[in-house]
Backbone:
């Protein structure tokens, strides 16, 4: 199966479970909680959960669909809360929750998704022991994601963030949830600690690469295509790898810390392209994926293992 | 043992576990997360977890101390987020998290506590099966708490909230976490479904009574003693049982929807006292506790069962 077909299949299954579980929304808070969840999204984290499970134990993924949804719920909760903190207005082509409702409802909507994630994780068909390990791993990831978001925001007040600091932030903010996705898939499918560790590490590294690509998309992709505010990282002064590498080349991006027109954005891209920053940053992401894909060679040969490698490559080639 | 001694013992154990687990706080977010947690609090929910466990299986509470802490962590997370939504400035005698830091840090600090709660629940010494049931129950409670807080806020825009609606809100906002505390204690101690159900119901009703008493304290107790903003419910126009019963007696409290001086507050109390509203509301709370304490008679006779009854009575007699 091609990756595209596989992702479509996962999205269909996840969307159907969302519809069955959240379809009867009667309260305003229910509607706010499901607003972003039903607005689309590529369901990449659920796909990593399911591919990891099947790479360990073929056919096990259908038993753990609720766990796959759990990861999507955590991802969506972090989006809802981050949008408040970063004051983003658009996401997945729709107004963000706190924009459509208000900040208190945005906070609560995220908190509801957070709770539901742990409820759904418990519904997976797997041993109780595996599920407790999965709950622990997910909770640990959540705490780290918060630390990552906090670091990311603290960077906005600085202009001397190092590459190591950026990678630490990206690991926490984005890597940990992909690590948990792959690790939880492996654990629930009955993988050995060694297999679970390798898949966890694979998720961690590809997750960091995913974040780097996200930074590129924020700059390079139009709002129409990405469904979110364009160049919001520049506006907020986020110390992305792009920003750091530009600084190393003597380019100061801080003068773009404001709402930018399309012409402004084209100007920035052209400056960065000229000195090779865009290509450099792309290479950093690709190198990470190549490295982490090698970890997968410790798993038995299977179509799902190859699809996991494909998903890694997709993370750093996607344009939205 | 007297209840007071018991509560002191639980608080010492919980505080010590907090100190061991959160003592080494190095990041700013860690400090924000633990700010309210270490500022005191009576640790009543942990006490309910531990008493329920011991009422089922004497001596089992020491195995599940992390689960008792888990309930305190969830409680604290809800305080941190509620303080943002209600814009309260003082809590447990210290500035609220978003006041001392900022709103983004307040959101994240709550989110970190939320995660830690599930981590700690997994650390309890109990069967994996019991722990998964406990995780489910806690997650379910969290979603309901959010719904309760949302209802509570939506009431601020109305002046026709009925008693039934108030009780529904109090059940979700406060009852569900006490229900989970008692239910989780019973489940982790190996209680039968019947025992767990009765303890859950006990927690639910005493929790509602706790909320009614909290409304009274908000009005009657000085800030110095309660450690939080006085009469913030009136200021925010919260439709408490006091407000609803006053309305039934023809008293419109909406003119007190503003920052109130001590003299204003004394005036309100005197008006409400004269028509018997304060006594009425106190009776509603006491009746609830008496009723729910009767549920405990289905448990075997034990000192802990009696302490659970005492805690119910304490909920509706405490003055802060």
Residues:
């Amino acid at each position: 199966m091609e990756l595209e077909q596989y992702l479509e299949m996962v999205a269909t299954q996840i969307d159907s479970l969302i519809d069955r579980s959240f379809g009867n929304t009667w309260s305003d808070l229910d509607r706010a909680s499901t607003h972003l969840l039903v607005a689309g999204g590529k369901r990449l984290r659920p796909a990593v959960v399911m591919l990891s499970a099947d790479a360990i134990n073929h056919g096990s993924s259908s038993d753990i669909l609720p766990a796959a949804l759990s990861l999507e719920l955590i991802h969506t909760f972090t989006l809802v809360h981050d949008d408040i903190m970063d004051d983003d207005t658009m996401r997945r082509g729709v107004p963000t929750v706190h924009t459509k409702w208000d900040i208190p409802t945005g906070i609560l909507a995220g908190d509801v998704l957070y709770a539901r994630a742990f409820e759904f994780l418990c519904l997976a068909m797997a041993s109780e022991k595996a599920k407790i390990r999965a709950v622990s791993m997910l909770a640990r990831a959540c705490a780290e994601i918060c630390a990552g978001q906090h670091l990311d925001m603290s960077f906005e007040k600085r202009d001397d963030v190092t590459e190591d600091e950026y990678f630490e932030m990206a690991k926490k903010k984005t890597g940990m949830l992909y690590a948990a996705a792959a690790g939880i898939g492996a654990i629930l499918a009955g993988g050995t600690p060694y297999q679970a560790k390798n898949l966890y590490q694979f998720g961690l590294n590809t997750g960091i690469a995913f974040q780097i690509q996200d930074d590129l998309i924020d700059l390079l992709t139009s709002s129409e295509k990405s469904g979110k505010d364009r160049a919001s990282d520049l506006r907020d002064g986020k110390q992305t790898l792009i920003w750091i590498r530009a600084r190393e080349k003597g380019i100061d991006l801080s003068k773009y810390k404001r709402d930018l027109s399309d012409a402004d954005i084209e100007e920035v891209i052209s400056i960065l392209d000229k000195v090779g920053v865009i290509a450099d940053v792309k290479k950093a992401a690709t190198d990470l994926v190549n490295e982490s894909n090698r970890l997968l060679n410790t798993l038995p040969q299977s179509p799902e293992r190859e699809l996991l490698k494909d998903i890694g490559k997709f993370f750093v080639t996607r344009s939205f």
